[in-house]
Amino acid sequence: MSYKSSDIDMRYAQQHSPEHVQYMRRNRRMRTVVVVLRVSILIGIFVLWEVAARLGWIDAFIASQPSRAWAAAVNLARRGELLMHLGYTVGETVAGFVLGTLIGIVVAVLLWWSPFLSKVLEPYVVVLNSIPKVALGPIFIVWMGTNVDAIVAMAIAVSVIVTVMMVYTGFTEVDPNKVKLLRTFGASKLQVLQKVVIPSSVPVMISALKVNVGLSLVGTIVGEFLVSKAGLGFLIVYGGQVFNMSLVMSSVILLSGVSVVLYYLVSRLEESVVKWRE
User: Fold this and answer.
1) pLDDT tens string for the chain (278 positions)?
2) Predicted structure pTM score
3) Contacts of 31 by beta carbon, 8 Å cutoff, 6+ apart
């Protein structure tokens, strides 16, 4: 049995106050307007880029244009290389993201568990966070070779320290009254961690995931710039070396799409966690 949209709206209106119904309708209209504007801006950018290249406002050889970037992507797909390069970049990013997040959370737990250890390691964490991670690339290459391991290590290096700092800060900002209450009832430190600290820090962990997904992608691309023979980073470097800016622009657009998809997946995870907590 199917229901029309008008029937559903009428039934909803009967169950809620007129003010609430009007508020929800305004929210739906606002979401629609936001989506339309976002899509319009994106389309406008590509149209302006294409028109500027065709009319000679910009040098198409240097700046390329959407039609040429699309042709470069289609050419990669026809040769069977597009999915391979995307697979390398996405796989390395996901590996660096997962490992960097897990390692960062474990280190943050250790720092919270031992205030003495936290005081000892605090300056080292600050120094590691301030070091440009690109400088570590040659070290990883020497240690691990010119392979995927060095790229994943680069992605981990970029994301892990940020995770440690964000999650540890979240642990230390948990309501101390809740901790004192559990200690009063004889809870162990592990129980305090399980029952109060980690549940209270879930929003901070989700925020760390959102930051990490972008940082891991940055680390992956930097690693591919240095050592990779496949991946979007490799295509960007190769395209720049042979002055094929259409390939470069196509790879950058694909990279933007990958970052949007990964961020969307993390956002969906956040929504699921919020619903589960509620």
Assistant:
1) 444 545 545 554 455 667 666 777 788 888 888 888 988 998 999 999 889 888 888 888 888 888 888 988 898 888 888 888 888 898 888 998 889 889 988 998 998 888 888 888 888 888 888 888 777 778 888 888 777 888 888 888 888 888 888 888 888 888 888 878 878 877 777 888 888 888 888 888 888 888 888 888 888 888 888 887 888 888 888 888 888 888 889 889 988 888 888 888 888 887 777 777 66
2) 0.79
3) none
Question: 29 is written with which tokens?
Answer: 């209209």
